[in-house]
Design brief:
With 195 residues, the protein is an alpha/beta fold. 52% of the residues lie in helices and 13% in strands. Strand 3, helix 6 and strand 4 form a beta-alpha-beta unit. Helix 2 packs across helix 8 and helix 5 packs parallel to helix 6.
Length: 195
């Protein structure tokens, strides 16, 4: 069996669709997210990220960027955790109380009023994401949702919606990382002075 011939048209089509989302986006929510993250950083508050599947991987990636990449000096980064990173915690919670609770239970233990939750979701309708947003609201934790498709229920449950109306999971996940990198670079350029 020989491999299929490669047509570059498919790749150009993907790039064109991604460029259209970038060109047609409203960046106000990203600005609000950047300011909220800067406040957390300046006040030593915690930032939590979560998602499912590729979005869980993106949460882990971005937590790394905000821990070190925004300051690039020992001890200078943000207090940040990816709630999707600990397999033992995730499987314990999923097994004992259900997958819908894997993020809300972690927040209930770790979060404090004034912290920030960032959820990453294509549909905005995953039960564990919605429960995390509800838990954040109960605890006076500010929340942001970076969403694709229609934005789902998460769009109305969060404090800061960042919505890209694209019906393509891969481009929705690309936008999560792009937003994270935009905010990371802005924070790096606007980092607190070293005392």
């Amino acid at each position: 069996m020989s491999p299929a011939p490669v047509s570059l048209t498919a790749f150009q089509d993907y790039a064109t669709r991604l460029q259209a989302v970038l060109a047609g986006s409203d960046w106000n929510g990203v600005g609000r997210l950047a300011q909220a993250m800067q406040q957390c950083w300046l006040k030593g508050r915690q930032v939590f990220l979560c998602g499912n599947g590729g979005s869980a991987g993106n949460a882990i990636h971005l937590a790394n960027d905000f821990l070190y990449g925004i300051a690039k000096r020992t001890g200078g980064g943000m207090r940040v955790s990816a709630l999707s990173a600990n397999a033992a915690v995730l499987t314990c919670l999923a097994n004992d109380i259900g997958y819908d609770h894997i993020y809300s239970e972690q927040l209930a233990v770790q979060a404090q009023p004034g912290d920030l939750l960032i959820v990453l979701s294509g549909s905005g309708n995953s039960a564990n994401i919605l429960r995390a947003l509800e838990q954040a609201r109960k605890m006076d934790v500010l929340s942001c949702a970076i969403l694709g498709y229609s934005g789902g229920k998460a769009k109305d449950l969060c404090d800061i919606p960042v919505h890209f109306a694209v019906d393509d999971m891969q481009i929705a996940e690309d936008m999560q990382v792009i937003v994270g990198h935009m905010v990371m670079q802005w924070l790096y350029e606007n980092k607190p002075a070293v005392e």
